[in-house]
Write a structure and sequence with these properties.
By secondary structure, the protein is mainly beta. It has helices at about 80, 100-125, 145-150; strands at about 130, 160-165, 170-175, 180-185, 190, 205-210, 215-235, 240, 245, 250-260, 265-270, 275-295, 305-310, 310-320. The protein has two domains: about 1-30 and about 50-75, no CATH class; about 130-145 and about 160-320, Galactose-binding domain-like (Jelly Rolls). Strands 1, 2, 3, 7, 10, 11, 12 and 14 form an eight-stranded mixed β-sheet that branches. A two-stranded antiparallel sheet has the order 4-5. It has a two-stranded antiparallel sheet with strand order 6-13. It contains three helices and 14 strands. The longest helix has 23 residues, at about 100-125.
């Protein structure tokens, strides 16, 4: 510096106040010496002549922090020192669509729905019909005409004419015995006539006293028909005054159907108050004989009754022509 003092870390010299790095000012030129007046008698000494020293200027106070508190600056830029710290952001792929095996769940769900639909069609698509079985082999007897005739000819298989009808609607019924009329819980007089097996009302029934195993009901059609389906409601399917008479009477568990040509098919029943049908090979007949082969015990409790009942009978076929 101009004053020769040692430099510090500030922007000004601590001794003379000159900005650090600025060129030093040139010293002022020496003043011309003035001629001394001639005084003969004045004994006052004359001051020596020479350059006049410039007045000392005090530097401005340094307001910068002490040297030990000021951070040293580097001549090169370092991002680790000059950039503010940052935080890690969330995973930018967090909101992306779910990938991988997620689609497999929907595929499995769709397949399960299809399987369920197939099962329901198989269970409910039969309209509650069973199929007659061969008494000797146990195989299904609901065969096609070609299967019945090894030669492949269906000429001997009866077909009937017209629409399929419930031929029991116009048939007559012969029964071994009929229970007397009773008064129901609602005060109504109830009869149990054989014709009520074909009146289309499950709440009415033919009923006979006791265990009817071995007894027969003969159905005579109004005209010969070709039959391919038979069935019945195997008990007294009536409810009145909050009482269900189906479990309070005997229920039929099995019967044998016999046709004019001697063909016999056996039908078994579940204990439920609904029409239970069975397919049979097409057979032309004028009469059907229903032989009761098994029944349940009588109903239990105060409302139990020792009667065997049939609420409805169905015989599906066409007129023989």
């Amino acid at each position: 510096m101009a004053c020769g003092a040692e430099l510090g870390v500030g922007r000004f010299c601590l001794n003379c106040g000159h900005p650090i790095g600025a060129p030093a000012p040139a010293p002022p030129p020496p003043a011309d010496p003035a001629p001394a007046p001639v005084q003969a008698a004045d004994p006052t000494p004359v001051p020596p002549t020479g350059p006049v020293e410039a007045p000392r200027v005090e530097p401005p106070p340094d307001k910068s922090p002490p040297p030990d508190e000021r951070p040293a600056r580097s001549s090169t830029w370092d991002p680790r020192d000059d950039l503010l710290p940052y935080e890690e952001v969330d995973d930018p792929t967090a909101d992306d669509p779910v990938r991988g095996w997620a689609w497999a769940v929907w595929v499995a769900f769709a397949v399960a729905l299809m399987v369920l639909a197939v099962v329901l069609i198989r269970v409910f698509g039969t309209d509650g019909d069973a199929t007659a079985a061969d008494p000797e082999t146990g195989a299904s007897s609901a065969t096609t005409p070609a299967e019945e005739d090894p030669s492949g000819s269906a000429s001997d298989v009866p077909r009937g004419i017209g629409k399929r009808l419930d031929l029991a609607d116009s048939a007559t019924f012969k029964v071994p015995a009929t229970a007397p009329a009773t008064t129901d819980l609602d005060g109504t007089l109830v009869a149990y006539e054989a014709s009520q097996m074909a009146d289309g009302n499950p709440a009415t029934a033919w009923r006979t006293a006791g265990d009817a195993t071995g007894q027969q009901v003969v159905i005579t059609l109004a005209e010969p028909g070709v039959i391919n389906r038979v069935g019945l409601i195997n008990g007294y399917a009536k409810q009145v005054a909050g009482v269900d008479w189906y479990p309070n009477n005997r229920r039929i568990l099995s019967v044998t159907w016999t046709f004019d040509d001697g063909t016999e098919v056996e039908q078994t029943f579940a204990e439920r108050p609904a029409m239970q049908r069975m397919k049979v090979p097409p057979v032309e007949t004028s009469t059907l004989t229903v032989t009761i082969t098994s029944v349940t015990p009588p109903g239990s409790g105060n409302l139990g009754r020792d009667y065997t009942a049939i609420s409805e009978v169905t015989v599906i076929g066409r007129r023989a022509g």
